[in-house]
Structures are given as C-alpha cells and as structure tokens.
Amino acid sequence: MILIQEVVSSFTPQTTASAISGILWLIPALPIVASGCIALMKQPLRRAAATFSIGSLGISLLLSIAAFAHVLSGWLAGNAVRESVNFTWMRFGSSAVELGWVLDPLSAVMLVMVSLVGLLIFIYSTGYMAHDENFTRFFCFLSLFAGAMLGVVISNSILLLFMCWELVGLTSYLLIGFWYQKPSAAAAAKKAFLTTRVGDIFFLLGIVWLFAQTGTLLFYDHGTGSLEPLALASLLTQHAALGLTAAGAIGLLIFAGAAGKSGQLPLHVWLPDAMEGPTPVSALIHAATMVAAGVYLIARVYPLMQAGVPAGGVTTPLTVVTWVGASTAVFAALIAVAQNDIKRILAYSTVSQLGYMMAGLGMGGVAVGMFHLITHAFFKALLFMGAGSVIHGSHDEQDIRHMGGLKKLMPVTFVTYVIGMLALCGFPLVFSGFWSKDAIIEAAQHWTTARAPFYMLVFGALLTAFYMIRQVSYVFFGNWRGHGHAHESPRVMTMPLAILAFFAVALGAIGSPLWPWFRSFLEGRTAEFGFQGFSEPGLLTLMATSSFVVFLGLGLGWWIYGNKSPAPEAPDALQASMPRVWTVLQNKFYVDELYGATVIAFYAWWARVADWLDRRVWGGAVAAVTWMFGLFARFDRFLDANVVDGTFDKGCEELSTSGGLLASIQSGLVQNYLRILALAVVALVLILFWSSRP
Amino acid sequence: MTPLGGYLLIAVLMFAIGLAGALVRRNAILVLIGIELMLNSANLNFIAFWRYGPHPEALTGMMFAIFSIAVAAAEAAVGLGLVIAIYRHTHTTEIDKINRMKG
User: Fold this and answer.
1) Complex ipTM
2) Among A19, A252, A409, A468, which is most exposed with the fewest C-beta within 10 angstroms?
C-alpha cells in the first residue's frame, strides 16, 4: 500500500537463460499434447482422459512451481529475474517473425495461479461431469484451454500471445457451447465469440501497428524488444491522431482487446451469458483465468501503457483503463443486485471485480491490479465451484428463489462458500479480498486526476457486500424451497473447495501492508516486514472506511434478506419498495436490448441491404451476363446448324450421291466395263487424231 | 512383197472381230478367245511395223511379239482357270450372270 515511485536501483536485471526457462515451453505444451491425445481417444475412456489431463496439468504445476522458485531465489539474491528464450519462426525479407517465452515475476506468479486453480478445477470436474456422456470431449477442451492460457502467460512475443489468446477464445467458445443441444448455450457461445472478436480486431490492429513501428514482435530482447526503453522512446516521438503518441494509441488498441476478453464496458455482455456452460468452465474460464487474461495483458504491456511518465504517473491509456474499469465495477455490481440465477450473480460480480482490477492497473500499477487478479482467481473459483456444488446438490436448480436452508444440508459447501463470499466482499483483516481491494481503493484515493473513481469503487464495494449477502441468505438460510432432496456433493468436489478456501484466506498475507511481499516481488524490490506500512498517512482511515462500507453492505443485506425464506413467487424485497429501479437492474440496464436495437439491428439491416444488392444488383448483373451469353449461344447454334452443319451435310450428301452414281457404273458385268473401255479408247483415239491435225 | 497396209488391214479386222467377240459373246471362253484375237492382231502389228521399220535387223519387234505371246499364254491359262473356278461355283459360263462383284 506504499506508493513507490521508482524501482530501487540495487536490483540488477538478469537476462541469461537458466535451465528452467529453457524448458518453460513444456508448461503450456503438456496440456495441449494431452488434449490432442484425448481428442484421439474413444468416448468411453473416461478415466484415461481425466488421468491424462490432470496428470499433464499436474506436471505443469510442478514445473510452474519450479519456475516460481527460481524467480523467487533470484529475487532473494537481489536479482530482478527476467529470462527470455527467443527464436525466429520465419523470415520475410529483412523482417523476421520471432516467438519466445519469458520468465519474470509476473509470468511466474500467473503460471502458478493458473495451473493451481486449473488443477483444482480439473479434479472438481471429474465429480461434476461424472454423468455426462461427453466426459472425454470436456477434458479435451479443458486441457486445450489450460495449455493455451499458460501459453498466453509465458509469451514473450506479442504474436505468440495473440495466437494463444485466440486459442483461449476458441476453447471458451467450445466450452460455453459444450451442451450445444441447448439453443441458449449455442447462442451464448456465439455471442461470446463474436463479442470478444470485436475487441480482438482492435488488438490485432495494435499488434500490427506496434510491429510496424518497432520492427519487433518480442517484448524483451536484450534491449531491442518492443517494451524496452529504446523502442518506447521511438514510439513516444511518433504522433498519432487526436494528440496521442503512437505509444498511447497502441496502448488504447491493446486495451480494447483486453476489454473484450475481460468483459469490460461496453463489451461485457457476453460474460454473463457464458454461464450457460458447465459450472467448472464458468469457474475456470469465466471467473478465474481467461477473463483475467485481459488484465494480465495490460500488466504485461504496462511499460507501453505508461510510456513517457515515471511509475505512478498518468497517461491517456491508463486514464481510459481506469475510467472503464471503475464504471464497469459499479455498473456490473448494480446489475448483480437484481439477478436471481446463482451463476449470473457471480458472473456480474466477476465483471465488476475485473473492473476493479482494471482500475487498479490504471491507478496503482501492475502489482495492485495483479494482486487482486490472483486473490480474485482463488475466491471466485471457490464461489463458482461452490455454486456448482449447490446446483449439483439441488438437482440442477439455478434459481436462488428455489433454494434455501442449504446451511444444514450442505455444510462443507456452506462454510467454504461463506469464506469465498467474505473474501469477495472484502471482509476486514482476515480475508485476502480485503487487502487486494483496499490496495485498489487506496490507489484510487491517491489518484490525482479525478476523485470520482474512488467514490465509484467504494460504492461498488458496498454493492458487492450487499448482493453477496443477498445471495447467501437466499441460498443457505431460511427453509428449503426447492423440489426433491438436496444433498452434499461428493468428496472429489468438496476437497478442491476446501483447498481454495484456504488460499482465499491465506493469500491476504502476502499483500497486506504488514508485509507487502507480492508487490515488492513484482516490482523487483526487497520487502520489509513490519508495521511501518501502516504509518502511511490516511491508510488506517481508509481501512476503517472500507471496513465500514463492507459492514454496512452486509448489515443492510442481512436486514433486508436475512433468514426470511420468501416464497419463490413473491417479489423481491427491493422490488416491492422501488419497482422501477428494480426492473431496470433486472434487465441489466437494457444493454442487450440496446445492442439489439442498434448494432444488431444495423447488422440485420445491412444484411438485408447486402441481400438486396446481392439479389438485385449483382444477381441482375449476373443474369444480364447470362442472358447475353445465352443470346450469343443461340447465335452460335444458328451458325452451327445452318452454316457449319449445312456445309458439311451438303458435302456428305454430294459425296454419297456421286458415290451412288459411280457405283451404278460398277454393274458387275464385265462386258459393260469392256464396252466403256472400248468407247473410251475410241474417244481417245479421236481426240488424239483431231488434236494432231495441223 | 505385200505392202504394210495389207498387214495393218488384216490386223484391224482381227482386232475388230476380237473386240466384237469380247463385247457381244455371252460365253466366257469365247470372250477369252476374242481377247486372244485382239492380242494377236497387236502382235501382227508389232511384226509388221518391225519388218517395215528403219531397223529390221534389230529383232525388237520379234522379241516384243514373243513376249506378248508368252504373256498371252499365261493370261489365257489364268483366264481359263478363273472360268473353271467360277463354273464350279455358279454352274454357268455365261458372263452376264456373273455380276456378284458389283460395287
């Protein structure tokens, strides 16, 4: 929580490659290979499929931990480890397409998080998907996703990152539409794919621009990479439109890609619909890892985003990131208040928390945003898997109005879920979410450009506490209002919950002001253990404020919803008091409808125009050409029939008649021949006789 | 010595008689005989022109006539052979009945 303006210079950058960074590519490669093997397996080989994907991801986790340990030991020895392995993929003329991977604190932390959360969710999935007939296909996609995501994390080349990024998008599409028999799932998959594609177009533009300006695709390449001072300085001298430098414009384009993937306004619409996929997918992809890819991308290209100002300074891209993040945080939290689907509430909460991360990146730097990313990954995966456990235990019921009283029926799920929920709300001191969210709010407080993001984020925190307590009291308190008998989930599902719950609490320890280890690690400084972090002016007041806000939200929520067990058909307590606001919130501010009325309507209109053009104009042109050719062909046929054929036929006819005539001479009567011969001789003689006369 | 015209007159008569025989007779053998007559009239001409020609000592006309007679003999043999072969097939020697080889 201390704003350090620059990196302490005692840390020397270390760039030589070590053994672990040489085999870093194995981490994404193993799950991808496993996915390929599973794709070739027969459908009934369920156990083998699960073993393959869990085993490969387990090895990846071990390698990730080894990589992390390597970076950590370098850090403890006073070195800022950044090892990259680069190679040329192909060459066109003088420019080369280079790929590579990088091991630095950022990628090491992310590697461990992705593979650990991924592994827990894989294990959980074996329980959740146990009765699905497409179990092997599920694990094939899941492994491919994990590999692609790990590839995003270690990429040192923006092209390799983009390739993995698109693979991640593809697996997301495949997994949202996993139950493609459901029309809603198929539609949600399509929506997710197309919406993220909007951001990706801009991202691709940014990549092309960056490549054109810097001539390299690598992030770090011994001083010549695109994120290193030389390239950044040249980018700053280039001017793009609207008073932006090239660095600023490229940063904004890349942020558009990140906004698509991370569900930021106005491209957030796909993320709540993505909950049509199986719950482990929602947990892994649409809460913990994939949606964090956008945040990670911004953290990765952070030198570009803040090019031209010292650490903690304000640039146009970072301002945009901040405003978009803060607006998303409040916007999604408001919608979450009025939702009734257990997963949809969590989905909007994810959108909101991603907004927090973006705002943290924009105002506080890499460490602030990434810390919330890591803690959020654990507690949100925990919440989603808890929700999956609830859905599993209450016979595929997702509407929280038809649940209730699960506290006694599902004790393990209840305890872990409440831990996750308190972490998400930012319950003071004990839970990791408190520290990571406070770091963001503190950064907002110190932000010099505007005050509004601070108030927005505090209001968002209040809403978060409110909608989470609403959900928990609907689901776990009161009486059971669903059908059938709810039951606790099997061990294979509750064990990962317990492990994640442990992390949801424990991770706070590495980021609190008491021991700002995480931040120092990412920024390459030594961490001091002690209470001097708390002596930051205003920090204790801020902590008190945010604690107060959390308690206010929780108390308000409990006062309105706690232990009431309303009938499923009864209107919500808030709906009764302010029906108009409720309707707007429940309909998600009509964003889908707005897009339906504008973008989609425009596309439909444009499609109709294109259709009309196709039928009338192009079709007409084609028909005219056809007609012309038809005419031409008819003329040809006339020529053929009358001139060519006529000549030929006449010739043949003549030949045949003359042949007939000649044949009639050939009467077979030898004496006739002789007569003709004799007459001919006579004629010959007469001719000779007459011609020889003078 | 008989003048050349006499020989030529005889040869013309023989040729005309032979031609007439070949053209009008129905019997294939008689047609062949007509042909032989025409050949022989030609031979007579050879001899006569040789004998009254500028080089009577050169024996050219004689040689031609002897060759012609030899060829005529061979032709007559072939012709008779054909007639016999045709007769075996058709049991006739009447030449206007043998018209199966028309085009």
Assistant:
1) 0.82
2) A19
